[in-house]
Structure formats: C-alpha cells, structure tokens
C-alpha cells in the first residue's frame, strides 16, 4: 500500500511521535510506502507532498511541532474541494490516508470517507475535549507546562501579598485549568462550563489574604462570569462573541483590584502551552496511537479513528470524534472546589 | 471521627499530595480530626504520632517524600504486633486508619482489617505493578525522569559511537523501562518479564552502529538473560538470587564490549527516579486518591482501597492489591519491539 | 553580635539562599544571633520581627520567594522614618543590619548608613542592571525560564507560519531579552537601550517567512519604537509614561499584522520569570553573596555591599549600587544582531 | 577564506552552539566558506569532510552533542600524522582551522600551529578545569543536571533515614561536585583536590542522622581517601591507578554502612551530565566563543584560543589552555565546608 499522512489544526506536542510510529511500523512491519501531505488539508487539496520514509522520521520523537506542517484549510468550504483531493490522491498513487487532527480535521475526514476515500483518523487536541477517547496527546504536556508556571507564581504571590492570575488554554472546556490548577494547588479555578460569581471569587481572595498567603487563580480562556456581572464591552469580544485571548485574565485582575483593593497581576501562557517536547505520557500515547492507526489502515478499518479506553488503544467510528464535546463534569469540578479559598 | 494516616514502604512522588487531600477534605468538608503516625507501621506499633491538621499539610502538594516518614517495619513479623497496634490506636482515640503504601503495607492493612481494624488503603508503587488499578502515582514521575535522562544520553551516544545503557527501576515488572524506553526512543528495552537473548541484543547494537547512530539500551534492574547465557557469579547476586542493584546494567556493558568490540557505558538512575516533585499526572491522581479515600473512611467502606479505572476513581477490596502482580503483557512489549534495532 | 536581616523589592530566586548562608555561617562559624525583619523596610519601621535561627533556614535553599516577605515600603518617604528604624533596631537589640534588595532598598541602606546605622548590602535584581557587580542572582533563572518558553514557541511558529512575540522583563535594561533571545535563537531582539525601527522589524519578519520558518521576536517590556513610529495613546501608557506591562508585545503584534498581513501572537511571561526554584548559578552566587555579607558584618565593613567580579566575591561601597544603571552596551547588542532575520 | 571546523574529545552541551555561531557570522558577516571535519582530528587526518553552510547549522543551537561527531584520535601519536593533516587541509582548500576541544585537542592544535597550520582554538571541558578562562561551556549544564538529581535525592533521604551518595564527574578537579553540592545543599562534598578522612565523613553522617534528616554526600569521581584509609584492591583501579568510574561512590557506601550501621545508597550520574540541551548560560557562552573565534580567524590571530574573563570574551595563547590544570582552591572549598554536617 501507499499511504498518505497529514496533520491539521493547532500545534500539539506528540504529532511527530504519531508520524514516526506510523512510518516505522508501516515500513518495517508491513512494507508499505508513505507520502507526506503538507500543511493539513492544503496538502492533498493542492497536491503538495513531501517524502516520508524511515530517514525522514529519524530523531523526531522528542520534537514538538509537526514535520508535515499544519493549517486550518477546510476543503469543504472550497468549491470542488473533495474532487480536487480525490484527484490529487490518485495522482500521488495514494491508497489510504491517515489524518491526524482535531474536530475540524476529523470532520473533513468523515465527509471524505463518506464519499469514498479510505481514511483513518488520529484524534488530536490539547484541550482534551474529544468525547470518544479518555485522553488525547498534548494535553498532559500542556498541563505540566501550566503547572510549572503556577508553581513559580506561588512564591511571588506569597512574598508580595498580591493576587496572581494565570490564564490557560480552554475556550470551550476547562480540562487544562482543572488539572493544572489541581496539580499546582490553585485557590480558585474558573472554567467555561461553570460561569463564575465574581463576589464569591473575591471572597476567596480576601479570605486567602488573611492567612498571610496570597491567592492564585487559574482561569481558562473561555471562562466567563454569570450573566449580568462584569459586563463586557464590544472591543473586548472577538468575532464569536467570546472574550479575546488574554482578555478574561486581565479583566479579572482589574475587577479584583477594584473590589478588594488588593493588587492583582495576570500571566497569559498562550502558545508556550502547545510547543516544545512532549511529556512521557504524551510520547507513549502518541506512539501507541500511531501504531494502532497503521494497523487499522493495513487491515482496512477505514472510517475509524483510534482512541484510548482505560489502558487500551481501540478504534471507534470517525463520527464519534465530532458528535459531542467532552466538557468537565460537575463531579470533577466539585473535587477541585474542596481546595478553593 | 478521628482518623490516623500513615505511609509505608519506598519513597514515591505524590505521597504528600494524598495526605493533603485526605486532611483538606476530611477537615474542611466532613469535620473530622486527624493524627499522623510516623514511619509507616512503626508509628502505630510504637504509638509515635504527630499532629496532622490543615496547617501541617500547607504547601506540601508539590513536595516529594512524605511528611510522615516511612519504613519497612512489618508488624506481622513482630510478636504481639497486631495487639500493640490496636492498643495504640485506642490510646490515640483513632476510629479509622488510612494506610498509604505498596503490596507489603496493604497486605498488613488487609490482615488488620480482618482482625477488626477499620482501614482504608491507598495503593502506592513507583513500579506500576498493582493489578487492581490502571496506574499508581509516582510511576509517571519516574518515567519522565528516566526519559529525560535517556534523551540526554542520545546526544552522547551519537557523538561518540558508543553504546549507552540506562538501568531503571523494576525488579519484577518492566513498566518503567517499557514506558521510558518507548518515550525516549530506545533501541532495545529489556524487562524482567522476558529473558533476553544476548546474541540478539548484540545484533541490534551492531546493526545500529552501521547507521552512524549509536544504540541506547534501557534495562530494568530485574531483567536477566535467558537460561545459560552470561552466567552470574555469587558476588553479583543478592540474598534473593537477583542481580544486585546496578548489576545487570554493568554486566550488560561488559558483555556487549566483549562480544561487539564497541565501547559501552552504563548509567544507573537509582533513587533519583523516586524523589522530587511529582508530575501533574501524579499530583492529580494522588489528590483524587486522597479525596476518594477520605470519602471511603467517612462512609465506612473499610477493607477497601482506592483505584483508578479509566478516568474514574473507585474502591476495590484490599485483597485485590496483593492478589497478583501486574506485569507487562506480551502485546505491550510487542509494541515496543517495532522500534528495536 | 545580634544582626537583623531583611529583603526588599520584587521577588527574585535566590533570596532564601542568601538568608540561609548568612545565618548558617553567622551562627555556625561566628556565633552571632539573628533576627528577621518582615516585608522589607516595613519590618524595622514598624518593629515587626520573626525568629531567624538555624531551624528557620532549614530546607529553604531551593525555594523561590523569601521567608522574610518583602515590600516596596520606603522609610525615607515617611515622616520620622529613620528615627523609627533606629529606635526599633535598638529595641530589638540589633547591632547590624544586612539588607538584601535592589536599587531602592540599597539606596535606603546607604542613607541609613550615612546616619549611623551599621548596614551591609546584598544586591538583588532580576534585571542584572546594577553596575557594581558582574551578575546578580535571579537573572540566570529568569533567562532560563524565558529561554525554555521561547524554545517552545519555536515549534508552534514553524508549524503554523505565524510570527510569535515573547515579552520578557526589563523596563530600563534589556539583559534578559538579550540573553534569552540569544540562547533561544530569536530572530529579532528588541531592548530599551535601542529604540527599534518597525520597518526593519517587519523586513526581518517577511524575510524569515520566505524560508518556510517563522519568526520569533523577543521584546523587553521597556522596548519602544524610534520617535514618531507606532504612536501610543493615553490608555496604553502608565503613570511614568511607559508602555504598560503586556503592552509593547501586544502592540507589536498588531503592528506586524497590519504591515505584513501575517498572523502574529504574543506571550507575556510576567511573574513566572521571578518565581520558583533558582538555577545552580543563582544558588551558588546567592550563597556566596550571603557568606561574604556575614563576613563583612563580622569584620565591621559597614556601608558596603557584596559584588561579583570575575569569579571572586568582593565588597564595594554601597553607593556603587545606585550610581549608574548597567545597560546593554552596543557591542553586546551587535553580537546578537548577527543572528537577526 | 575557506575555514575548517572540528570538535574533539568528550561530549559537551554547547558544541553545536559554537559551530552555529562560527558559521552564521563567518558566512553572514565576513562571506567566508566552511567545511566540517568529522570526528575530531580523525577528519583532517583521513580527509573526511562534510558540508557546513547556513542550512547545516539551522536548528542546532539547542541540541546537545555535535553535528560534526567527535573522537579521541591523536594525530601526534600517528606516524606522519601532521603531514597527512597538512596535505588534507591543502586538498580541501582550507586556509584556517577552528578546533573546538579540551586539553588534548588544543594541545594538538598548538603543535600544528607551531608547524605552520593556521589554527584558532575554542576551549571545551565539562569539568571547568582550564586555567585560561573563567568558565567553559557545558559546565553550567552539568552542574544543573547534577543539582536537580541531588534535589530529588533529598526527599528520599529524608523519608527513609538512609545516607545517599551522588557520584558526579571530575577526575582531576572537583568543580562540578563543588557547585552542584553547594547548589543542592549537600551535607558533605568530596573532591580530588582534598583527600578525605573517612572518619570525619562518618561523623558528619552520624550527626546528620540525629536531626531526623538524612545525609547527602556528593563525591567527584576522582575523590579519594587520605593515604592508608579504605585500601583499594587491584580490580577497583583502572589503568591509571584511579578508582574506576562508579567506583568511589560504591566504595564509600559500603564503608559508611560498615562504620555507621546505617544504610547507604549510591547514584552514579555518568553520561547524563554531558548530554542534552545546554542551559542558557552555556548557550550564550558557547555562542559568544564562536563569534569571537571567527573574528580571530578572520583577523589572522592564529595560535590563540578564546576565553572568558569576567564578562568579556578575549583571546589568549593556545598554550595557556594546557599549561596548568585549574583546580578548586582551598578558599572555595572552605566556603562549602560551612554547610557540612
């Protein structure tokens, strides 16, 4: 077989580990050939390929990013996109495609499969918000980076009697905030799933200051106050009506300063959460995803994606990936609330 | 209620996170009181306690080790041990005990429970070889430490055309070697579950040298050759007939040098794998274990231990912990073998 | 002797290492007694002390922050401040004071010395902008934290064809930006000492994109464009007329997007640069500063501060600390410019 | 000009940073051409070269090892070695050579210079024992790796009432042991410069145990007892009469167990101290060394090597590198002794 591989969507530590595992097992065990498509769906859409053999994947396991490049190009929004992809796959002599990406990338994969393309998916999201799998690679790395940053904030908070806010990724789901905040001993964690009451946040801040320790607040970028509080102005929202990146953390700092009279400072971690070398957890998960994906392609299990269930890697339908967002359940947030204040 | 807490056995990152979660929820949510017993079972045996309140657990979440101390004292091997413990628990006014430890500690907990002591267990092993739980805390930290060390060895191996061996923990189970070796791209991984063929190891070493890259071998301390190879001498074995710590790595280096004519060097990671601050995965798991353990004690679920199944924390019978060792299955080792050579 | 110790100004990794060294040598070698003053000059001003013996400094070497607390209280701006301090030192039976802090703290120390207080200073600034010493502790830690963050940004920048900007500390001097940018291979480094030409910055950005790699820009918070470019508005400046924290990075992103049509994103590292455990360099330097400071106090070398010259720790006049800001010289910036574009 | 570059001797983080800086400035500023010689002096001896242009040095700044490979080949010990090198340099059209290495590599460079070869040296030693420069790159990385390992040992030592020994590099000079031990709060530091009294070491161990804390001993691989103590046997010494690698740490553990009755365990860090990504200090120093070395070659300052003096990079005679070993002076060891016990 000749198999194409592409990576779509945002950066995520572990992408290269998946690619390496696919190629190593595909060539070494099954004797298949591979071709890389550049920059997500742009590659098959425009027919831009790159060599993808054993030599190309040497040494990439520990590296962040993706040697294939990525993009958010959506062929479904392009006139004749599907036909162009089918033509380019045929031209490149590709029998099957392994598509590594998040909701959008896998959504396209599903539609291509429905139109006759042999696709296997590998789920990828820093945010850990895909329903069909216990965890996605990249999440553990992001959580550790955020945790280390919050660990560092603790000493500054304590030495200077100042509230510190750390804004982490998570527009629709609060998994990174929940895990990083729990791991680093945050005094309050705010997530998109549960609109926060600013009065209660300030009460935590003030009670914490009474202990001679200073509060650390971890806030997901998609968190927001309950209706009617901290009214947002037009310039503070993006095209989707969400608070802009770096927005909610800054706003919260201002509001806390205004209401408590205490200094508050915000750090926005931004892209450093999704770059760099993956943790062991993510390298092992990504490698096992890659191994299972090439098995699936080899055995003709198309229209599926790989997933983690307990300690096993399984395949589920590609539509599982996109059916529903996995958000933080009330019970998990309640665990974290034990440590608030 | 008044609840005693103890930690037994070897050091393990996350012990303090368990203790903190138990106390924070026990005091804050349930209104219980706590007392710490020092140095594992030695504490209740000799009646040595320490205060264990909110103040005592402040700031301990990120710290390695255990504020309660530990030991390998086994009260079952001491004349009248059980009675002494029951007396000392009564004297200390303790209604229930939370015992955090490995196979040995939980084995004692089981026997005490059978004789009427109200015990809840929390499983702990760096080695991840307890059957009743998907993972134990400390394991992820150990794997990351070993992975980072192996990452570093890669550059030296490549610059100097020298085989490098990294000996990691794992006397009976090869989980750390498997995960760290897979995460760091080892060329061979040797585990206790599968006696190795030294000829094959040397063949991997030689084929790797032909690529201008140098081989990295990860070996669990309990790995050993197939019967008849590399005959061990008396001084190289410990009281149990195992190769001594730091033994198999050194022996392997000598054997490889002898057989291939290439230089080989060994690093023995030893105790650095079990000390220091836990990873996010271990801090979250340990915290959730602690929360569930105090729930179990509060609700009178004695004779149980907490466990991870998928993403849920559950309770299982204390005897589950000790029934069977969880070793690396053939299928998991086969995943790693794809990358050998 | 009975010696008081205080720490003033912003947080800085290594403060606890200085305190520990002062006390360990002062008690162990010289037999002196110590008392801690809380929260910088607020401590002696209000007579708030804490015990400072061998037990108090145990285990603090690797910890960020300061066990003594800190503040920006300036007794010179308080009516009768000097007299209050002298009274409180007398009440506490203190013969000499070791003041650890930056320009402001040491400026006060100098004035107190001029009015008869026996003071030894220890210089502290994350920013490395004190003229009398080759390096200050905390700087190496900040540079490593920033470098690791920029290392992580590289993979995201490369995978997504997006310009990434990292804003680091340095209001008046660009040392952190220079070292972190040089260490992490930034494509442009902008420092307060050299107003930047936005046209040239954009030219670098565009030429970099042509290589299929994406540009990383490191910008000190105090950097600013040459006169007349990127006119700042009122809300974007703080009370001193400086761009607000998190300001220049954001502004630069907008300007680059506008001028080049490429996406640009900013990460503001903020307080994580000054918290957490110090690097080895900073722990050794801070420890040696502490040892030399207690020697100076013991030998009556008051009115001095300790300093690093080459590999030696020496004492210089307290006024040396405040005479002149050490900014990045043209020759050092020229070294970095070799790698621009 | 056409300039050859080689790296000789043991691995050292920062080698690639030097190579990159040489090539980036050499090509970008001066317009020179470069050729890489493989595996130290073996390259020019056997005429084995590799391309070394801007593309070859892209992305190598953060990577450990050396893209040129290394070896301990000494052309002075090979019949006609010098002539072969001169011939091969002529054949490759090389006008000048930049040799990056330690005492041995620079010693050869000096002899070649004396026989008419245009050489500039860049000093490299993990051990920091070159007299002509304040620091060498690689040392700071090694110290940080060792410090982090010792930090981790602390918690295990404290939880288990066990003496822990960490053996670090340093056959002739104790710089790594001194800095890592001081940075990590070791209770005893043993270096080659000062033969240790085993009775005194055991006294420290026992007094430490009385505090409920456990002792950490950092020992350089070249440390040894005072004459007559702990008599070594033949199998424990290498060809030079030194204790074998991993030898002194193990021996010390046995001796401490025998004399104090307390458990003692050893970790031998070995090659992980010299691999992996360099710290910021080492990346900046290595980069500045590379920049200065190409300046020297460009300006015809042959027979020199670059060196750090204070914060400046200067050139000194190549013979400076090899004249005398820089060992730990008594005054520096005395600083560390303050914290013993």
Describe what this molecule looks like in 3D.
Four copies of one chain form a homotetramer. Chain A is of the alpha/beta class. Chain A folds into two domains: 2-137 and 278-323, 3-Layer(aba) Sandwich (Rossmann fold); 141-274, Rossmann fold, CATH 3.40.50.460. Chain A is 39% helix and 16% strand. The first copy, chain A, has eleven helices and eleven strands. Chain A has helices spanning 15-28, 42-46, 81-91, 103-114, 139-160, 175-184, 198-209, 247-260, 280-298, 318-323, 330-337, and strands at residues 2-7, 33-37, 49-51, 96-101, 119-123, 163-168, 188-190, 216-220, 264-268, 304-309, 312-317. In chain A, the strands form two sheets. Chain A has a seven-stranded mixed sheet, with helices on both faces. In chain A, strands 7-8-6-9 form a four-stranded parallel sheet, with helices on both faces. In chain A, helix 1 crosses helix 9 and helix 5 (139-160) packs across helix 6. Chains B and D meet through helix 5 and strand 9 of B and helix 5 and strand 9 of D. Chains A, B, C, D: Its cofactor is Mg(2+). Chains A, B, C, D: Homodimer or homotetramer. Chains A, B, C, D: It comes from Planobispora rosea. Chains A, B, C, D: The record marks 124 as: Important for catalytic activity.
